[in-house]
Structure formats: C-alpha cells, structure tokens
Amino acid sequence: MTVSTVSPGLDARFREAAAASGLLDVGYDVVESTIGPLFLAATDRGLCRVAFHSEPDEYFDLLARTYGPRVLRSTSSVNDARRQLDEYLAGGREGFELDIDLRGAPPFAQRVLGELARVPFGQTTTYGALAQRVDAPRAARAVGMVMNRNPIAIVLPCHRVVGANGSLTGYAGGIDLKERLLRLEGALL
After folding, report:
1. Are 84 and 121 contained in the same domain?
2. Contact call for residues 63 and 26 (beta carbons, < 8 A)
3. Are 157 and 116 a contacting pair, CB within 8 Å?
4. Is residue 117, in this structure, part of any structural domain at all?
5. Under DSSP, is residue 180 helix (H, G, I), strand (E, B) or coil?
6. What's the structural domain count of the chain?
7. Which candidate, 120, 96, 87, places its Cα nearest to that of 47?
8. Is 51 helix (H, G, I), strand (E, B) or coil?
C-alpha cells in the first residue's frame, strides 16, 4: 500500500487557487497578533468571524451550517482583515474598512451590531443606550446577549460597551483585554 502526502507548499497553492476561483464558501486563518492568536474568517460578502480562540475546529460546523460546506484555510481570504487589525492594534487605525457578513445573526442581533458599529473610536456606550438606539429601550439584557455572541470581535467594537455605571463588564477576550483596547483608543486613562 502506497501512501502519498501533499507537500505544504502544494497544499497552500491548492487552497489559494480555490479561494481565487471562488470555490470557497468561507476562507479562514489563525493569525498571530499583539493580543494573541485570532481566528479570522471571511465569505465573498465580507468578514464573518473574528474570535479570540484559535482552534478552527470549534468553528467549522457553525461556519458550514451558516455559509456553506466549503470551509478551507486560506490566508488570502483574510489578508485585508489581518492587515487592518494589525494596524489598529499598533495604534495606527481608528476604524475598519471591511465588508461584514452577518447572515447568520438573527434580525435583532443584526440591528444591534449595526448600531454597535457606529460607536466611535475612543468612546464608550452602555447596553441600555444601545437598546434605545434600536428602539428596544427595555432590552438592555438582550443587547448584552448580542454582545456576548458578537461574531466579529474588535471590528464590531463590543469592547466599547460598558455597564450603566461605567464599569467594565464581561468580554470574550477577558476584562484585561477589554481594558487594554479601551486604553489603546484613549477611552480609559
């Protein structure tokens, strides 16, 4: 029995050719950053995932169910997001110029995340204020759940959402990272 393996170079060329030919539903990569590894994924419509966990296996099923079964590691699919995140984390970027694909999010979450994207660099808001902005003034807790499940961390800046009293509350990357990002933006002294 002969077992052959594909060289890493050939494998990478195959993946990039698939991405260039539009044969992927989702291209992803795990990238190193100044805040640790980030899982990035994108469709042909835009960025669909930025997560602090670097284990791709935990995302495959979700990405395949939401966007289609052709999920493949492809650095070119997320190069622009990687570059912009690096610039942001180095203090050289205040906003992102990336298309976002939120097809998997429920309508309420899409509205909340759309308002979240409007929170300016260097400023914070509260869960209650976001609820007001989506015409659901009594839904601060529901807004908190949307923040907890934000599929596109940092780019959709849930780190800018604080408690009603200004306290730093839960964050997928941890409170220390939330504080670090707010300090980077000058929102905390």
Report:
1. no
2. yes
3. yes
4. yes
5. helix
6. 2
7. 96
8. strand
Same domain membership, residue 175 and residue 132: yes
Give the chain's largest Cα–Cα span: 68
158 is catalytic: yes
56 and 28 Cβ atoms separated by less than 8 Å:
yes
Instruction: Match 């909340």 to its residue by tokens.
Output: 112
- From the centroid of its chain, how far is CA 171? 13
Does residue 67 sit in the same domain as residue 125?
no
Same structural domain for residues 84 and 120? no
What's the pTM value of the predicted model, to 2 decimals? 0.90
Q: Domain holding 145: CATH number? A: 1.10.10.10
**Residue 142, both tokens:** 């529901």
DSSP 145-161: HHHHT-SBTTTS-GGGE
Q: Which domain holds residue 145?
A: 107-184
pLDDT(2) > 70: no
Q: What is the SS3 assignment for 40?
A: strand
Residues 77-97: tens digit of each pLDDT: 999 999 999 999 999 999 999
Tell me which of 119, 158, 181, 184 is the catalytic residue. Answer: 158
Name the pLDDT band for 58 (thresholds 50, 70, 90).
confident
